[in-house]
Design brief:
globular; alpha/beta; 8-stranded mixed β-sheet; 8 helices
Length: 224
């Protein structure tokens, strides 16, 4: 069974790295749609809370999280080796600003290096973290292709900025349009298929750089 078919039939196993205000809601949405989800975070307190059905994100009802954990749809861990059995990985780690006002992408690099250790054929990797245009192609791609796998043929790489607006009761994850672009057309197509399982409207754009720029423009708009 190919990756696309696995996704459509909800047989794909999903990994979400970074269980903060963007990552945990994403993991919950995939779990609610019937996927088996592995949430990964280096914060062991968060991992323990999730596995006990305790929620630290206000927008997620604790009862909902507890049921997903009880039904074995969602499990949290600090062990990146679970990525060996995962078909699609979303990276939702923070990118805080340095004193010089440029983004600190060290968390992205650390996550990608862990992903690279367990990268396997027919695996989709998606970056959701806010970053500067060019990160997906110039920073992530070389690290993954160093495993002698080729993007668009052996594995798939895309960028899709998280658009979570904490506390917004009108626009939730499912009804907020999702911007997506892959390194190749096939990468884009598979990423669109994945997000289409949980989000009403998925908007493919021309390049990963365009998708990365969209997020910066949205953040600027929100700040203004």
């Amino acid at each position: 069974m190919g990756l696309n078919e696995k996704i459509v039939r909800h047989k794909a196993k999903i990994g979400v790295i970074g269980l903060g205000y963007a990552g945990l809601p994403l993991a919950v949405e995939f779990a609610k749609a019937g996927f088996h989800v592995k949430g990964i975070d280096i914060d062991r307190d968060k991992v323990q809370m999730i596995n006990h059905g305790e929620c630290y994100i206000k927008d997620i009802p604790e009862g909902e999280l507890r049921e997903l954990v009880k039904d074995n749809r969602l499990e949290a861990t600090s062990d990146f080796s679970v990525l060996k059995g995962v078909d699609a990985v979303s990276i939702c780690v923070p990118t805080p600003l340095r004193k010089t006002r440029d983004p600190d992408i060290s968390y992205i690099i650390s996550a990608v290096e862990e992903v690279a250790k367990y990268l396997h054929p027919e695996q989709l990797i998606i970056l959701e973290s806010t970053t500067y245009p060019g990160t997906t192609r110039e920073v992530i791609l070389p690290r993954l292709e160093a495993r002698n796998l080729r993007v668009g043929r052996d594995f798939f790489l895309a960028f899709s900025p998280e658009r979570v607006d904490p506390g917004n009761k009108v626009y939730t994850m499912s009804n907020t349009p999702k911007i997506v672009s892959g390194i190749t057309k096939k990468c884009t197509s598979i990423a669109v298929t994945l997000y289409g399982q949980i989000i009403d409207k998925v908007v493919p754009v021309s390049s990963t750089e365009s998708a990365e720029m969209v997020k910066l423009l949205e953040n600027t708009f929100r700040i203004v």
